[in-house]
Amino acid sequence: MNEQVDIRELNERIRMESAFIDLINMEMKKVIIGQKHLVESLLIGLLSGGHILLEGLPGLAKTLAIRTLADSIEAGFNRIQFTPDLLPADLIGTMVYSPKSEEFKVKKGPIFTNFVLADEINRSPAKVQSALLEAMQERQVTIGNETFRLEEPFLVLATQNPIEQEGTYPLPEAQVDRFMLKVLIDYPDMEEERLIIRENLQKNFPKASPVVKPAEILRAREVVKEVYMDEKIEKYILDIVFATRYPEKYGLDRFRLMISYGGSPRASINLAAAAKAYAFIKRRGYVIPEDVRAVCHDVMRHRIGLTYEAEAENVTAEEIITTILDTVEVP
After folding, report:
1. From CA 89, how far away is CA 87, in angstroms rounded?
2. Adjacent-strand bridge partners of 81
3. Rounded to an integer, what distance in angstroms lies between the CA atom of residue 134 and that of residue 313?
4. Which CATH number fits domain 227-327: 3.40.50.300, 2.40.50.140, 1.20.58.60, 1.10.8.80?
């Protein structure tokens, strides 16, 4: 009974604390037409402190979405176009000699902001990708002998183009694991695209207004951690992740030779954190199985390694995740 009272109180508190979600959504809708899943994914990353890898064709509002989010939160935004000749110093900064003071001074790079858009991350070599991924993981950057903490909230949105793979440097599987979500973006429907045309041909293109301060986001992150997760939901998350490692134990023998490796403990942590953030967005103080199912594909799709057998039979990570969700017992 006490637990129920606590959940009721927590529910009420989260309803109040999550009020700003509606404000952000309103500002995003002024600029972004459709792409509900993209906006939701950005909010999940923002509320749980996780970074996002976006895969979609050019012109699907990837850059516009994160710029709009930054505008609505009164936060800094930098876009970095990744190219084959980019150097780590172009990203994190370097030491510059000052003739006036006759000493080297630190010149900070574009990574020192709240929102970083790493556009076409697979266009740059491994050393640049590593510099970004290290900053994402450690939330700090070392230039010369000095170490600098990155601003909070800090969110990296990296995009990669599924077409034109010539001359690209695909992210190593082990490093893709650093991204909390991998989100696939599709075309808008015909009615949405009609509105997109009208909006872009107006005299004044709409712009989001700041409605939330970064401090409110940091406070919300602490509240998200308090969202109640029952032991049965924890077991459900573990079953999903373990089914990617040992499919035969869950009656999925046909996947045994198709999966080269399954989700790491980071997958379990991120699935739980994303489910809590999703519950918060839905103004709920507790996680239900539907929250886990809603975020599962985005959290898991880049964490399952496929063998040649899977490729020969045209079995995708999406299909494996869907089958696991249909097989694992829902609490």
Report:
1. 5
2. 119
3. 36
4. 1.10.8.80
Radius of gyration of the chain (CA): 21
The two structure tokens encoding residue 304? 């399952």
Q: Looking at the chain, which residues constitute the CATH 1.10.8.80 domain(s)?
A: 227-327
Residues of the chain with CATH 3.40.50.300: 24-217
Quickly list H helices, the chain. Answer: 2-17, 19-31, 36-48, 62-72, 88-92, 126-138, 173-176, 190-200, 214-225, 231-245, 265-281, 289-300, 308-312, 317-327
Rounded distance between C-alpha atoms, residue 26 and residue 91, angstroms: 32
Distance CA(76)–CA(114), nearest Å, equals 5
Nearest Cα neighbor of 41 from 65, 67, 12, 57 is: 65
- Residue 117 contacts residue 159 (beta carbons within 8 Å): yes
d(CA 245, CA 287): 24
Q: Which two tokens stand for residue 207?
A: 């712009």
Burial class (CB in 10 A: 0-12, 13-18, 19+), 120: middle
Amino acid occupying residue 36? K
Other beta carbons within 10 angstroms of residue 20's beta carbon come to 17
Per-residue pLDDT of the chain (331 residues; tens, 9 = 90+): 344 547 788 888 888 888 889 899 899 988 888 888 988 999 999 999 899 998 888 778 888 888 888 889 888 889 999 888 888 889 988 888 888 887 888 888 899 998 999 888 888 888 888 888 888 888 888 887 888 899 888 989 888 877 666 667 777 776 788 899 999 988 888 998 898 888 888 888 888 888 989 889 999 999 999 899 999 999 999 999 999 999 899 888 888 888 988 888 999 999 999 999 999 999 988 999 999 999 999 999 999 988 898 888 888 899 999 999 999 988 8
- Of the CATH numbers 3.40.50.300, 3.40.50.720, 3.40.50.1820, 3.30.450.20, which one belongs to the domain with range 24-217? 3.40.50.300
